Amino acid sequence: MHAPQYHETLFSRLYPGKQASSPTYLPVVQASDAFLGLRVAQQARTILRSDAGFGSDANIEAALAGHWQVVTKSSGGRRPVALARQVSADGGLELRPNDRWVAPVKAPLAFERPVQWLALRWRTQQGGSCQDSCRLYLIGL
């Protein structure tokens, strides 16, 4: 959920100040579930998109178990770079000529429901290939 009139996310309005985002994820998902009252079939068509801090393995597992669709981004730590290294330099689908590529990668762990792991790589401003600038996306199927 997004509160564009504040130029902030709903999470930052509910949980102001400097704090870790991961512990706020499940309470907000549960409150949204109670407020929206979606049936399981509707949840299966509803995508929870989260950035790196929210997308812990435990949060993803809980959302998938709750029948939600999940798209999450992991941008920190060792996992994104390690998985992106699975893809050859010329591997993946070119999204922009000589600039940005996406490729499926081998799942580092299994969740309750099937998910697809995708590594997004791009050329750095200095012209080098992505190392620390990789992103890892997990998509619930």
Short characterization:
28% of the residues lie in helices and 26% in strands.
* Number of helical stretches of at least 4 residues: 5
Cα separation of the termini: 21 Å
N-to-C series of helices and strands: EEHHHEHEHEEEE
The stretches of 5 or more residues where confidence is low (pLDDT under 50) are none
Q: What characteristic shape results from the CA principal axes?
A: globular
> How big is the Rg?
17 Å
Largest sheet: 6 strands, mixed
Number of strands: 8
Helicity level, as a percent range? 25-40%
Beta-strand portion reads 25-35%
Count of domains: 1
Overall mean confidence score, pLDDT: 78
Structural class: alpha+beta
| Biggest β-sheet: strands ordered side by side in the sheet | 3-4-8-7-6-5
Keywords:
single chain, 141 residues, alpha+beta, 5 helices, 26% strand, globular
What does this structure look like?
The protein is of the alpha+beta class. The protein has one domain. Helix content is 28%, strand content 26%. It contains 5 helices and 8 strands; from the N terminus they run E-E-H-H-H-E-H-E-H-E-E-E-E. A hairpin with a 3-residue loop joins strand 5 and strand 6. The model has no long low-confidence stretch (mean pLDDT 78).
Question: Any chance you could write out the topology, listing elements then pairs?
Answer:
Layout: E1 2-3, E2 8-9, H1 10-14, H2 22-36, H3 40-43, E3 47-50, H4 57-65, E4 69-74, H5 79-84, E5 93-96, E6 100-104, E7 115-122, E8 135-140
